Amino acid sequence: MFQSINPATGAKGERFAELDDVGIERALATAETAWRDWRVSPLDRRTALLDALADRFDANKRELAEIATREMGKTLKSAIAEVEKCVAGFRHFAENGPSFLEEETVPVPKGSATGRWLPIGPVLAIMPWNFPYWQVVRFMAPAIMAGNVGLLKHASITQGVAAAIEDMARQAGAPEGVFQNLAIRSDKVAGVIADDRVAAVTLTGSEGAGSKVAEAAGKALKKVVLELGGSDPFIVMPSADIEEAAKQAVTARVQNTGQSCICGKRMIVHADIHDAFMEKFAAGMKAVKAGDPMDEATDMGPLSSFDQRDTVLDQVDRAKQAGATLLFGAEKVGEAGAFLSAGILTDVPRDSDIAREELFGPVAMVFKVSDIDEAITLANDIPYGLGSSVWTTDDGERERFERDIAAGMTAVNQMLASAPQAPFGGVKKSGHGRELGPWGMHEFMNLKTVLAAE
């Protein structure tokens, strides 16, 4: 059984049954049967389902948000915003999906060649707890539009969210098997990937989980998309709007209690404006209020679990042992709950392990650099390459950052965020492949070449 635990109180919540081998077999058989029909379904039937899903999410957004808040601790207002983003995601693929599937014909020496986008089958999605609705929808919406069907293996701590998403699909009129919640633990994943009825795999999660899933998919010769960890640089140069950069840096670091793969985690600040930036950034971080995530006045909820809180505390301790200075914060808050106060680490040795790790909590590392070359070198001196945020009004600097930062995404003079329209993904140990937009839909489609004689 899966046990839900409220990280804000430590109280036990609902319990959810795990699928046994018989249940897994039934789900896979149902998915295969559903795909045989859905793969040839008219496009207007697919768009109608996406619009109906958007309607159901919108009509139930508060109830859905409350489940996420109870299970993983994000503030209710941010959970509602996440559900609203899901609505936008469904609408985007309903409106634009047909154009993503348009054929393209080019001349060849003996006639023409047409590229056709065709679905490939059931897609297994292994999704994390940090954005428990949005992470699912950004695979689910394009998969349905493409003519594929979805199998969701959600995180163990967000099984209530997983069940709610499946219920929304049922209420929206999804045919049986087009979307199923596969309530299994990680030790069952390799067997599901190996099953011939599963066509491909997408995972959002840790580097370790990505390695195991990639190995299983490789053995089965199946397509896999991996969106893994990140320790994103947030670079501030002298020409930037310092006040706005500092304000956005606070939001970037503490949104979702710092548990976002594309949070700005390493603040890399030019020496000329370092002190001015730090004054504003530190004041903003100190003002962050951690507390009851159901309270509208709360800025930041608890960590997703007590284990996650302790992991962050251990990382902070190791940073201090390596010679870093904890300016403030990173302290337990209250008598109950997995709360931490927002904090800042400085003087982190650049050759230390912690400088190259992902800190998945509300603690920032701040580094001072002398020029753009040092900023780029430091930004790239990690195993990850997911996102980045750069703050400059100098066109030459902007070009350098866009070209030379080894990351899948760079935001200029804004905090990095995902959008249904834009490709999302990373390089190096942050994974490979892309989600969202036509790029994400095409990851799990067969681009078939059709040759026609003159």
Automatic annotation (TrEMBL):
Aldehyde dehydrogenase domain location: 2-450
Keyword NADP annotated: yes
Family annotation (CDD domains): ALDH_SSADH1_GabD1
Alphabetical UniProt keywords: NADP, Oxidoreductase
Pfam families: Aldedh (PF00171)
Family: Belongs to the aldehyde dehydrogenase family.
Protein's UniProt name: NAD-dependent succinate-semialdehyde dehydrogenase
